[in-house]
Specification:
The chain is α/β, with parallel strands linked by helices. It contains 14 helices and 21 strands. Strands 1, 2, 3, 4, 5, 6 and 7 form a 7-stranded mixed β-sheet that branches. The chain has a 5-stranded mixed β-sheet with strand order 9-8-10-11-12, sandwiched between helices. It has a 5-stranded antiparallel β-sheet with strand order 17-21-20-19-18.
């Protein structure tokens, strides 16, 4: 029997052996093949370093093949390499076996088709229904082969998009995750001398969480200062998200990275669209406009950012969670590519990374979560939308929760996609105004809960 709750807003995810088993992986493979109208479809599959990855990948592939799909197995790769390979080799579908930054006992599947990501409202419900009810297609079995050149093709493609004007020194922490596969070779070829922390791929993640924690960044910071490096980077378990430390050992806000990279692209493509999501700092929109770009706001989540990137013909996009998206890479997010692009920016500047960071304006920002049952959180936010629509002197945006925007600050209230929580983000041009907006939002949230 397959667990229905593993089918989530953006992916399929659960604890291996409890929520997610070889049997359920096989059924998911059969469901994907049925959804694709299986016979003759070409699917590419990869996995991250998790210890359960190989068993789940093999079962998934068995299901895909029985449903008539021809499968190419990449083996262990980063999630962005799976995305890259799906489009670079013009395949019908790509499936990544990963739980991203979740703890080691978790695993799951991210599904990408030539039409875009499978997510809530865009095929996830269909695949769930097919898998749960066992209504699978009948087809002549497909074939499987191993594709061994994807890693090298990716490296060559990425290096062709990067150009450093001088050599740099970096501290890189893949955290025993999939990015380990590309270190230090890719960086050496790009012209970056690197010190690698936690360099061995290990699905038990013995050194730190697959997530990028403050503690992990503190260790990177310590080594950056010791080595007198130009910058440091921490990567999550599957390589689609990263966080930076500057040459002074300071953690760099994700909004600052977004602005730095937007400026880099707009120097060559003035007037180009840049996509960002609703929880990003107001400094992001201000910077894009001042640099001559076209700011495009999106819902939070890689599915929505990717779709806006393609629809708007955007050159770059980003989220405040550390995901950054590139037209150079078919519109997808990629932590390795982001680290190389930041290196490129530093190499072309006569300033140190810390000086570039200090040139970017920041405003006081705060975040808070509120416990609210899954069955109530969406209704609570819908009621809050109506409440704030009546506020005079504010602009109200409802593309993802409710964002209330004033002349000197804003707050965003949205239901969590993964937990029984409501999330609040507040930003203002002064600390006092931040506290005032926080109080307004908190009072209304508590009242509605």
């Amino acid at each position: 029997m397959i667990q229905e709750h593993i089918f989530r807003a953006y992916d399929i995810r659960g604890i291996y052996g409890r929520d997610l088993t070889r049997e359920s992986a096989f059924k998911i493979g059969r469901a994907i093949s049925t959804y694709l109208n299986g016979e003759g479809r070409n699917v590419i599959v990869g996995r991250d370093v998790r210890t359960s990855g190989e068993a789940l990948e093999n079962a998934l592939i068995d299901g895909l093949i029985e449903g008539g799909c021809n499968v190419e197995d990449l083996g262990v790769v980063t999630t962005p390499i799976l995305y890259f390979s799906t489009f670079h080799y013009s395949r019908d579908c790509g499936v990544m076996v990963t739980a991203s930054h979740n703890p080691p006992e978790w695993n799951g599947f991210k599904i990408l088709t030539s039409e875009g990501f499978i997510c809530e409202g865009r095929g996830m419900e269909d695949i769930k229904e097919i898998a749960v009810k066992g209504r699978f297609n009948r087809a002549e079995p497909g074939e499987k082969r191993r594709r061994t050149e994807a890693l090298q093709d990716y490296k060559e493609y990425v290096l062709g998009k990067i150009g450093l004007d001088r050599e740099l020194k970096a501290v890189l922490d893949p955290g025993n995750g999939s990015c380990s596969l590309l270190m230090p070779d890719l960086y050496q070829e790009a012209g970056i001398e690197s010190t690698i922390l936690n360099p061995e791929p290990d699905g038990n993640f013995p050194a730190r969480s697959p997530n990028i924690t403050d503690q992990a960044l503190k260790e990177i910071s310590r080594v950056v200062l010791e080595e007198k490096a130009d910058f440091g980077v921490g990567f999550d378990g599957d390589g689609d998200r990263c966080a930076f430390v500057d040459d002074k050992g300071r953690i760099v806000p994700e909004n600052t990275i977004l602005i730095i990279l937007a400026e880099h692209y707009l120097k060559e493509r003035r007037g180009a669209p840049i996509v960002y999501e609703v929880s990003c700092s107001m400094s992001v929109e201000e910077a894009i406009r001042s640099l001559g770009g076209k700011p495009i706001v999106s819902r939070i989540g890689h599915t929505y950012i990717y779709e806006r990137m393609i629809h708007e013909g955007a050159v770059f996009g980003g989220e405040s969670s550390g995901h950054f998206y590139y037209a150079d890479l078919y519109g997808f997010d990629d932590a390795i590519f982001t680290s190389l692009k930041i290196a490129e920016v530093i190499s072309k500047s006569n300033r140190r990374f810390s000086e570039i960071v200090d040139s970017i304006p920041t405003y006081p920002l705060a975040r808070k979560t509120f416990d609210c049952p899954d069955e109530k959180k969406f209704n609570v936010v819908e009621r809050l939308k109506q409440d704030f629509m009546e506020y005079e002197g504010y602009k109200v945006l409802t593309i993802d929760g409710v964002k209330v925007i004033g002349s000197d600050g804003w707050f965003l209230i949205r239901p969590s996609n993964t937990q029984p929580q409501i999330k609040l983000t507040v930003e203002a041009k002064s600390r006092r105004r931040l506290e005032e907006l926080m109080e307004i939002a908190e009072d209304k949230i508590y009242e509605r809960i």
